[in-house]
Protein backbone atom coordinates (compact mmCIF):
# COMPACT_ATOMS: atom_id res chain seq x y z
CA UNK A 1 0.00 0.00 0.00
CA UNK A 2 2.94 2.37 0.53
CA UNK A 3 3.62 5.09 3.05
CA UNK A 4 1.10 7.78 3.90
CA UNK A 5 3.21 10.21 1.87
CA UNK A 6 3.00 7.92 -1.17
CA UNK A 7 -0.74 7.58 -0.67
CA UNK A 8 -1.11 11.39 -0.65
CA UNK A 9 0.86 11.68 -3.89
CA UNK A 10 -0.83 8.73 -5.62
CA UNK A 11 -4.26 10.06 -4.73
CA UNK A 12 -3.23 13.52 -5.91
CA UNK A 13 -2.32 12.01 -9.30
CA UNK A 14 -5.72 10.25 -9.44
CA UNK A 15 -7.58 13.45 -8.52
CA UNK A 16 -5.60 15.44 -11.05
CA UNK A 17 -6.54 12.96 -13.79
CA UNK A 18 -10.20 12.89 -12.76
CA UNK A 19 -10.87 16.51 -11.84
CA UNK A 20 -7.97 18.60 -13.08
CA UNK A 21 -5.85 20.97 -11.01
CA UNK A 22 -8.90 22.58 -9.38
CA UNK A 23 -9.71 19.25 -7.71
CA UNK A 24 -6.30 18.98 -6.07
CA UNK A 25 -7.38 20.33 -2.70
CA UNK A 26 -5.92 19.04 0.51
CA UNK A 27 -9.25 18.72 2.36
CA UNK A 28 -10.81 16.69 -0.46
CA UNK A 29 -7.79 14.41 -0.85
CA UNK A 30 -7.66 13.90 2.94
CA UNK A 31 -11.34 12.85 2.91
CA UNK A 32 -10.79 10.47 0.01
CA UNK A 33 -7.86 8.86 1.83
CA UNK A 34 -9.40 8.91 5.29
CA UNK A 35 -6.34 10.77 6.57
CA UNK A 36 -6.10 13.93 8.63
CA UNK A 37 -4.74 17.29 7.58
CA UNK A 38 -2.14 16.70 10.28
CA UNK A 39 -0.88 13.76 8.24
CA UNK A 40 -0.60 16.08 5.25
CA UNK A 41 1.41 18.67 7.18
CA UNK A 42 3.65 15.93 8.56
CA UNK A 43 4.68 14.91 5.03
CA UNK A 44 4.56 18.16 3.02
CA UNK A 45 5.64 21.77 3.35
CA UNK A 46 2.18 23.27 2.78
CA UNK A 47 0.18 23.36 -0.45
CA UNK A 48 3.15 24.65 -2.48
CA UNK A 49 5.37 21.85 -1.20
CA UNK A 50 2.68 19.31 -2.07
CA UNK A 51 2.34 20.77 -5.57
CA UNK A 52 6.11 20.54 -6.10
CA UNK A 53 6.18 16.94 -4.85
CA UNK A 54 3.11 16.02 -6.91
CA UNK A 55 4.71 17.48 -10.04
CA UNK A 56 7.96 15.64 -9.29
CA UNK A 57 6.00 12.38 -8.93
CA UNK A 58 4.16 13.01 -12.20
CA UNK A 59 7.40 13.89 -13.97
CA UNK A 60 9.19 10.80 -12.68
CA UNK A 61 6.27 8.52 -13.59
CA UNK A 62 5.98 10.03 -17.06
CA UNK A 63 9.65 9.66 -17.90
CA UNK A 64 10.37 6.39 -16.07
CA UNK A 65 7.52 4.47 -17.72
CA UNK A 66 8.83 5.22 -21.19
CA UNK A 67 12.48 4.64 -20.28
CA UNK A 68 11.64 1.35 -18.54
CA UNK A 69 9.62 0.12 -21.52
CA UNK A 70 12.52 0.88 -23.87
CA UNK A 71 15.05 -0.86 -21.61
CA UNK A 72 12.78 -3.89 -21.16
CA UNK A 73 12.70 -4.34 -24.93
CA UNK A 74 16.34 -5.39 -24.60
CA UNK A 75 19.70 -3.90 -25.56
CA UNK A 76 19.80 -5.70 -28.91
CA UNK A 77 16.28 -4.75 -29.95
CA UNK A 78 15.83 -2.82 -33.16
CA UNK A 79 13.69 0.31 -33.48
CA UNK A 80 10.72 -1.58 -34.86
CA UNK A 81 10.78 -4.03 -31.92
CA UNK A 82 11.03 -1.23 -29.39
CA UNK A 83 8.27 0.82 -30.98
CA UNK A 84 6.14 -2.31 -31.29
CA UNK A 85 6.61 -2.92 -27.56
CA UNK A 86 5.66 0.68 -26.76
CA UNK A 87 2.57 0.28 -28.96
CA UNK A 88 1.55 -2.87 -27.06
CA UNK A 89 1.77 -0.93 -23.77
CA UNK A 90 -0.97 1.48 -24.83
CA UNK A 91 -3.75 0.11 -22.69
CA UNK A 92 -6.93 1.53 -21.16
CA UNK A 93 -5.68 1.34 -17.59
CA UNK A 94 -4.10 3.63 -15.04
CA UNK A 95 -0.61 2.11 -15.24
CA UNK A 96 -0.36 2.14 -19.06
CA UNK A 97 1.78 4.51 -21.10
CA UNK A 98 -1.31 6.33 -22.39
CA UNK A 99 -3.14 8.33 -19.73
CA UNK A 100 -4.99 11.02 -21.68
CA UNK A 101 -6.98 12.46 -18.77
CA UNK A 102 -3.81 13.04 -16.77
CA UNK A 103 -1.96 14.46 -19.76
CA UNK A 104 -4.81 16.88 -20.52
CA UNK A 105 -5.07 17.96 -16.88
CA UNK A 106 -1.37 18.73 -16.56
CA UNK A 107 -1.17 20.47 -19.94
CA UNK A 108 -4.20 22.62 -19.01
CA UNK A 109 -2.65 23.41 -15.63
CA UNK A 110 0.62 24.35 -17.33
CA UNK A 111 -1.17 27.12 -19.24
CA UNK A 112 -1.62 29.10 -16.03
CA UNK A 113 1.27 27.97 -13.82
CA UNK A 114 4.93 28.51 -14.77
CA UNK A 115 6.16 25.75 -12.42
CA UNK A 116 3.83 23.22 -14.05
CA UNK A 117 4.80 24.51 -17.51
CA UNK A 118 8.47 23.93 -16.70
CA UNK A 119 7.74 20.38 -15.50
CA UNK A 120 5.73 19.67 -18.66
CA UNK A 121 8.57 21.00 -20.82
CA UNK A 122 11.07 18.71 -19.05
CA UNK A 123 8.76 15.73 -19.55
CA UNK A 124 8.26 16.47 -23.25
CA UNK A 125 11.99 16.90 -23.81
CA UNK A 126 12.89 13.73 -21.89
CA UNK A 127 10.31 11.64 -23.75
CA UNK A 128 11.44 13.01 -27.11
CA UNK A 129 15.09 12.40 -26.22
CA UNK A 130 14.29 8.77 -25.35
CA UNK A 131 12.51 8.28 -28.67
CA UNK A 132 15.35 10.01 -30.52
CA UNK A 133 17.82 7.54 -29.01
CA UNK A 134 15.68 4.69 -30.35
CA UNK A 135 15.60 6.22 -33.83
CA UNK A 136 19.17 7.52 -34.11
CA UNK A 137 20.82 4.33 -35.50
CA UNK A 138 18.17 4.14 -38.24
CA UNK A 139 18.59 7.63 -39.72
CA UNK A 140 21.59 9.63 -40.87
CA UNK A 141 21.36 12.78 -38.71
CA UNK A 142 20.24 13.92 -35.27
CA UNK A 143 17.69 16.17 -36.97
CA UNK A 144 16.17 13.17 -38.75
CA UNK A 145 16.06 11.29 -35.43
CA UNK A 146 14.16 14.20 -33.87
CA UNK A 147 11.69 14.30 -36.76
CA UNK A 148 11.17 10.53 -36.53
CA UNK A 149 10.62 10.84 -32.74
CA UNK A 150 8.21 13.74 -33.13
CA UNK A 151 5.80 11.80 -35.36
CA UNK A 152 4.70 9.18 -32.81
CA UNK A 153 5.05 11.58 -29.87
CA UNK A 154 2.84 14.25 -31.40
CA UNK A 155 0.35 11.56 -32.42
CA UNK A 156 0.13 10.46 -28.75
CA UNK A 157 -0.15 14.04 -27.45
CA UNK A 158 -2.75 14.96 -30.05
CA UNK A 159 -4.75 11.81 -29.31
CA UNK A 160 -4.90 12.76 -25.65
CA UNK A 161 -5.97 16.39 -26.11
CA UNK A 162 -8.81 15.96 -28.62
CA UNK A 163 -12.21 15.81 -27.03
CA UNK A 164 -12.99 13.13 -26.20
CA UNK A 165 -9.51 11.60 -26.16
CA UNK A 166 -8.80 8.83 -28.65
CA UNK A 167 -9.42 5.46 -27.02
CA UNK A 168 -6.34 3.39 -26.19
CA UNK A 169 -7.34 0.62 -28.62
CA UNK A 170 -7.77 3.11 -31.45
CA UNK A 171 -4.43 4.81 -30.68
CA UNK A 172 -2.71 1.43 -30.62
CA UNK A 173 -4.19 0.79 -34.09
CA UNK A 174 -2.83 4.12 -35.34
CA UNK A 175 0.65 3.26 -34.08
CA UNK A 176 0.41 -0.18 -35.68
CA UNK A 177 -0.28 1.63 -38.97
CA UNK A 178 3.00 3.56 -38.50
CA UNK A 179 5.17 0.54 -37.60
CA UNK A 180 5.81 -0.52 -41.22
CA UNK A 181 7.43 2.90 -41.77
CA UNK A 182 10.19 2.03 -39.29
CA UNK A 183 13.39 0.99 -41.10
CA UNK A 184 14.34 -2.68 -40.92
CA UNK A 185 17.93 -2.05 -39.84
CA UNK A 186 20.46 0.61 -38.88
CA UNK A 187 21.77 3.05 -41.45
CA UNK A 188 25.25 2.26 -42.79
CA UNK A 189 27.38 5.19 -41.56
CA UNK A 190 29.57 4.86 -44.66
CA UNK A 191 27.31 3.94 -47.60
CA UNK A 192 30.32 4.06 -49.98
CA UNK A 193 31.80 1.12 -48.07
CA UNK A 194 35.03 2.88 -47.10
TrEMBL record:
TM regions (residue ranges): none
Domain HTH tetR-type span(s) in chain numbering: 2-62
Keyword match DNA-binding: yes
DNA-binding region: 25-44
PROSITE patterns: HTH_TETR_2 (PS50977)
Keywords: DNA-binding
Protein origin, superkingdom: Bacteria
Molecular function terms, GO-annotated: DNA binding
Protein name as catalogued: Bacterial regulatory proteins, tetR family
Annotated source species: Occultella aeris
Amino acid sequence: MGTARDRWLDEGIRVLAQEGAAGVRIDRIAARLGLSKGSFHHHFDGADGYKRDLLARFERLSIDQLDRAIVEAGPTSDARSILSRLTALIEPREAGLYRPELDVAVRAWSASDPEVRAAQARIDEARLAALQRVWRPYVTTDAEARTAALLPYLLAVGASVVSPPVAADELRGLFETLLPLVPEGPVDPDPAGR
